[in-house]
Amino acid sequence: MKISTQMQSQSLWMTTALLYSFLSLLTLSEAALSQGCTHPHKSPIDWRPKANESRIFSVGHDPKNPREIRVHVPPKYNESAVMLPLLLAFHDKDMSTAEMEYQSRLSDPAANDEFIVVYPTAKNNAWQSDISVRRWQKKEPQQKNVTDDVAFITQLLNDLDTIICFDDSRIHAVGMGTGAGMVHLMACDSQLSTRVASFATVAGGYGHPSKADHWAKCFPARLPIPIMSIHGDEDKVLPYLLNEWEPAKSRWSVPTWLEAWSEKNGCGEAIGDSQNAMDATGTAVTVTKLEGGGWMSEGEAFGGGTWRMAKSCPKPNSKDTYPTKKEEKEEIPLEVKSTDGEPNGGGGRKEEILTSNPADFTILHYRVHNYGHGWPTLQIKGSGPGKKVSRFFDATDLVLDWFKIHEMPIEWAGEKPKREDVADAKDKYSSKSEMKMETKEESITGEVKSEKETSLGEEKKNAEHARSENHSEL
């Protein structure tokens, strides 16, 4: 029996009981490859949205406490035999997945034509990392009303592995606000650090246990961990620096958090004299060697509207080898070129050019001047001598570009399977399974569809209002 057109249009929502019936309880080691590429018939429903469409599913292995995820797939998923990367996007406090999708534009085909995006929903409007409730340090079973979101995300990836075809070596995570704190916890987790290739945070809040070592609960099994950060220096919600009354609170300032990850990644302290140079984008930077064998570049970017810092930290040769301090491994990748583009000569003025590959960056940070709390997409006016040209700063493009140049190192990534044709896979769904979905949908679509129709418009209005407020701050 085939599902009617009406029932197909109503299949935006799936019940917990249905999804629970076919999501296998895999261990992380069993999910080395995306099984959705080679065994799509395991899914009894056609979960896929249409091109440039997002759908919401209820997920979780506890039918009494379901979790919602919003899923978006780009047109390439239906048109290409190439496996696509998977991106997990975590919303801020008091933000829905629809608002996160709208503000970040991660589902906008003009910005993203490649990434499958999954937007998980925080339980009770708070992630495990939420600073206000400080739940992330309370994992003991006796604690009530505590959600282990790290375990949830680990299981979610296992489940997605069975129903979506994606490149398992290109899983990435980005979070905004308190969602960025969730990304931090994922990077610290021994399992997820070997599953997620790279991480990015926007306007992030990063908590740590009070009166305890900052990294007492941070045990990534893979180092270094590539992390990108974007933060406005006028953020009043999660300030760039700690307020005077905040030391007693359980939060890092952004510079402290960046330095802590730098130390964790084995970057080492700056040594020797700094050198003035130009990077590949034409930005004037100061380049300094690091004692761990890497280097750091700093400078004003986007016409002086942001301060950018990049660190390239030494990479280990194997799972058992980690970078050590005070071990000089390579020189800063500088090349002398003239302003007419000729290397080591020519008629123009000679300059030092930083010729590094952005894929070598371990830490990349943008401090956006005069910007508040939010996801920055704005026109930056240059200031100072020679900086009158406006530049467009788009966090979405920067985040996606960061993910595009990173994938899981070969020693951690499994063999990539060839993708099976989507059309052939769809034919494998049994009519019995389709009938089951139709019955379930009849019992929930009336209530859920009504809620969707009335709420999505207001969520977009709220998101538009939030974006306009941040634009007005410049």
UniProtKB/TrEMBL annotation:
Gene3D superfamilies: alpha/beta hydrolase (3.40.50.1820). It is found in: Secreted. The keyword Lipid biosynthesis does not apply. GO terms for cellular component: extracellular region. Residues 307-353, 417-474 are annotated as: Disordered. Residues 1-31 form the signal peptide. One of its GO terms (molecular function) is feruloyl esterase activity. It catalyses: feruloyl-polysaccharide + H2O = ferulate + polysaccharide. Its main location: secreted. Residues 322-340 have a biased composition (Basic and acidic residues). Its EC number is 3.1.1.73. PANTHER family: FERULOYL ESTERASE C-RELATED (PTHR38050:SF2), PTHR38050. This is feruloyl esterase. It comes from Tothia fuscella. The lineage of its organism: Eukaryota, Fungi, Dikarya, Ascomycota, Pezizomycotina.
